[in-house]
Amino acid sequence: MKNVFTIYRNDWVRIFNAPVAALLIIALMVLPSLYAWFNLAASWDPYSNTSGIKIAVTNEDDGAILRDTNVNIGDEIVVSLKENDKLGWEFVSIEKARKGVTKGDYYASLHIPHDFSAKIATILEDKQVKPEIDYSVNEKLNAIAPKMTSTGASTIVQQVKENFIHTVSESVLSVFNDAGIKLEEELPTIRNIEEKIFALEKEVPKINELGEKVVKLESKLPKINKQAQKILALEAAFQEINEASKNILLLEEKLPEIEKVGEGILLLQEKAPEIQKLADGVMEIDAHFTDISEMVTSALSNVEDMQSFLETASESLEQGINNGKQIADVLPSFMEANGQALDTVGPVYKQNLLLYQKTADAVHQFAASVNSGALTEEEVSNLQAQVQTSIDSLTRSISLFTTLNSATSNGDEAFLTEIKDLQALQINFQQEKGKLQTIQADDEEEASTLMALSQEAIELSTALINRYDKQTEPAINRTLEEIKDSAQNAMNDLESAQENIPKLEETIKNTEASLTFAKEELSKINADLPTIEKEIHEATNLIQDNMDKVVAGINDAAKFYKDSFPALKEKIHAAAGFVRDDLPAAEQDISKVAAFIKTDLPKVEDAVHKAADMVQNELPKLEETLTKTADSIRTFEDEYDLGEIISLLKNDIQQESDFISDPIVLNENSLFPIPNYGSANSPFYTTLSLWVGALLLISLLRVDVRNPEGMYTSNQIYFGRSLTFVTIGLCQSLIVTLGDIFILKAYVANPVAFVLFSMFISIIFMTIVYTLVSVFGNLGKGLAIIFLVLQLSGSGGTFPIQVAPPFFQTINPFLPFTHAINLLRETVGGMVKETVLFSISMLLVFSAIAFIVALFLKKPLENGTKKMTEKAKASEIIH
After folding, report:
1. Which residues sit opposite 91 in a β-bridge?
2. Which has the closest alpha carbon to 529: 540, 537, 541?
3. For the chain, how long is the longest CA-to-CA vector?
4. Which of 136, 219, 379, 758 could bond to 733 as cystine, CB 3.0-4.6 Å?
5. CA distance 25 to 647
6. DSSP 637-706
7. Could you report the per-residue pLDDT of 856-872, keeping only the tens digit for each?
């Protein structure tokens, strides 16, 4: 024994002589308690913070009518949830709830469907339908949260059930109570009915006489029904009559327009000779279309010649200047050879104006056909290209007039006006191009905008054409003459000639570029001539075949308007007057009669048939029944008191309804109350920290003692070093238990026993773990860790062991954790002597087993354990 204490004393001397070792030992004493404290603090009272668990609630209940009262159970549930802060209820739309649960924004969702109240209201109907609340939960977010949310959902359902039972029972009892009150109120009426029945009993002979009259009326019903069918037929035709009457009123309203048409026909009759002349003109165009085609071909040829001429003139001017000749020598000779090139400026520009107008007309026709979708994508693309070509040509025309304007001494007002209108037309075409790129078929708004733009373009191009001969062409000619004169006088006015060369060159180039546009458009026209010729030829054939019929039709229509229309007009006014003044009243009277025939006459017929049948078959029985009823009333009054029945029906509705909805009172009695979840978990985490503390010690401290001279036996080493481990374990238990009580403020019913039993448990755990490592070496460390894993699941520290798999239920009684946790629970909740003694006994058994293993196995296994340890160290990984 002396050697045992020597080993123990030497251990602590070495610890205190090595500050690093002392600090490590202190750390090993404190670390296990941190494990327990942090876990307890984290789970101190989780159920008090459940308001952070978000549950989406969607109420779509439309409500219902229950006994003439509007009810909405969904709204009542929402009001109840808003007052309930146990969970984080959020009231959102169904779509947001679905997305939120899927994405994890909400742990679960409750959906109250639109027919919730309506299904509850079926309690008063023949067939009942159970209402439903849709509950969705995202179980992957957390293991415990779904149970909390499910409990919340179940609580809502239970609350609805209680409210429903209360409401229904109150409604039923209200019916009984109302019946009693009503019966009491109607007691005079009941007495009156009794008297009436007795009086009716006396009137039976007169009833028989009336029955005979009913039988006669029944025989006349077929004749009445036949006349009624005629009225119904007339009433059924009133829809067609009304439609026709609307047409009559519309016809009367349109009479002024018809008269205008008539006058137009008369005018058309007068203009028939002119129409004939127009038709003759179309036929003449058809006859001379070959000449027109040749004229377009000639115009195209002239444009090509002019284009060639301008190219030659431009090259001549550039060549003369580039060859280094003096301006005075170049210009006069150039103007003499190419002066006529400038004469094409005006005609080319006018041709372009006509083509601009053609482009505007084409866009206008397209805008008119958008709703019908008449143009193909290719035609639309061609139209866009035509507009872009006009835009480019306008740029050259604007440049031309800008050049011409700068060639005048002080500018020309005609040129400024022309430039302004050309720029406006170019902007218009650019807007039209944008619309053509985005417009869709049947887009009336876009088509209207495009129509307005094209109309504006037509007006601008027409204005430009109209003033060309009187204003634009003279201005162009005047300016060109000035340029020619300047060129002829180049030797005398060299400075002026130098200024006019760029203008002259720009003018020729712009005219040349404009000719390109004219050539392209004339080429298109020339390509379309065969199609145009075909259409004109078809129109000519149509005129030749139908002109006589058209003239004859116009003459017939004019004759009708002059001879027959005045009388027809008077008849239309008369018919319209009847529709306005008399038809509504007639329809109303017939409708009333028809309504009676459809709704009341069948009832009358049925009533007459039933009455006749009753007279023939039931009246004798009625007479007998009246006699029996009168006798029964007299018997009832002799045997029962109606006042007593009324008293039984009239009771306290609220009291009886409360009893039905909640008939049982549950008295809860907590034998061992623990105020919070953290305190309830302190036995488990304290026990766990003590085992973890033992694991830390065996991982960092040696279980063997240096014994060079063999002065210590193996048992002395075992017990000597175990005292050191146990001493540190006792410190660990003191720190963790006192921290539970004073730092975390955990509830403990018996604090002294809690500390002492924890120290006892620490001794037992340290003995078991120390023995495993001392006897089995590194293998013992692994066994200690395996025991920890098994005990975490099989000790019932968090969940009741009864809910664990069968394997863990089987090993539960044989685990030190089981009895250590039970022992500490007694100190926390309240001690039961038998349980305390049993737990202590079981822990002592585990300790005794550890000592037996050490005494009998340490010596035999010592050499093997050393060899195993040395091999492990040789790996230079395991110490």
Report:
1. 57
2. 537
3. 155
4. 758
5. 87
6. HHH--HHHHHHHH---HHHHHHHHHS--------SS--SSHHHHHHHHHHHHHHHHHHHHHHHHS-SS--
7. 887 777 767 666 666 65
User: 309-316 contacts: CB < 8 A, separation 24 or more?
Assistant: 309/338, 309/340, 309/341, 309/344, 310/341, 310/344, 310/508, 310/511, 310/512, 310/515, 311/512, 312/338, 312/341, 313/338, 313/341, 313/508, 314/505, 314/508, 314/509, 314/512
Which residues are CB-neighbours of 829 under 8 A, at least 6 positions away?
A: 672, 673, 674, 680, 749
Tell me: pLDDT of 470 over 50: yes
**370 burial type by CB count under 10 A (0-12 exposed, 13-18 middle, 19+ buried):** buried
d(CA 815, CA 713): 31
For the chain, what is the radius of gyration of the CA atoms? 58
Backbone φ, ψ for residue 374 (5° rounding): -70, -30
CA distance 608 to 618: 14
Which among 776, 773, 792, 619 has a CA at the least distance from the CA of 691?
792
Q: What is the pTM of this model?
A: 0.42
8-state DSSP, 343: G
Distance between CA 845 and CA 816 in Å, rounded? 10
Residue 134 parent element (H or E): strand 134-137
> Which neighbouring-strand residues pair with 59?
112
pLDDT tens readout for residues 529-579: 677 566 666 656 666 666 676 677 777 777 777 777 787 777 777 777 777
Residue 345 identity (one-letter amino acid): V
Question: Lowest-pLDDT range, 323-337, 649-663, 803-817, 820-834?
Answer: 323-337
Cβ partners under 8 Å of residue 246, min gap 6: none
- Give just the sign of the alpha carbon dihedral 292, 298, 301, 307: negative
Residue carrying structure tokens 């001279």:
709
How long, in residues, is the chain?
879
Q: Judge residue 708's burial from the number of C-beta atoms within 10 Å of its C-beta, 0-12 exposed, 13-18 middle, 19 or more buried.
A: exposed
CB 729 within 8 A of CB 770: no
- The answer to whether the beta carbons of residues 720 and 9 sit under 8 Å apart is no
How far apart, in Å, are the Cα atoms of 533 and each of 143, 279, 287, 522, 527? 87, 16, 10, 16, 11
Alpha helices (H) along 220-288: 221-236, 238-253, 255-270, 272-287
Asked if 232 and 594 count as a contact pair (C-beta separation under 8 A), the reply is: yes
- 109: helix, coil or strand? strand
Residue type, 440: Q
When the pLDDT of each residue in the chain is averaged and rounded to a whole number, the result is 74
For the chain, how many helices (H) and strands (E)? 33, 6
Q: H helices within 43-144, ranges in order? A: 73-82, 94-103, 116-120
Q: What is the pLDDT of residue 458?
A: 93
Q: How many CA atoms lie within 13 A of 153 on its CB side?
A: 22
> b/e string for 71-103 if b means 16 or more Cβ within 10 A?
bbbbebbbeebeeeeebebbebeeeebbebbee
User: Are 768 and 814 contacting, i.e. CB atoms less than 8 angstroms apart?
Assistant: no
For 244-272, what is each residue's pLDDT tens digit? Answer: 666 777 777 767 767 766 776 776 667 66
Q: How many CA atoms lie within 13 A of 389 on its CB side?
A: 24
Q: How far is it, in rounded angstroms, from Cα 703 to Cα 698?
A: 7
Strand partners, 54: 88
**Beta-ladder partners of 55:** 89, 108
Instruction: Tell me the C-alpha distance between 628 and 335, whole Å.
Output: 140
Task: Give me 608's structure tokens.
Answer: 């007459």
Contact (CB, 8 A) for 435 and 460: no
Task: Using the structure block, give the residue that is written with the tokens 């009741």.
Answer: 800
Do 714 and 861 touch, CB atoms closer than 8 A? no
Instruction: Round to whole Å and give the CA distance between 228 and 235.
Output: 11
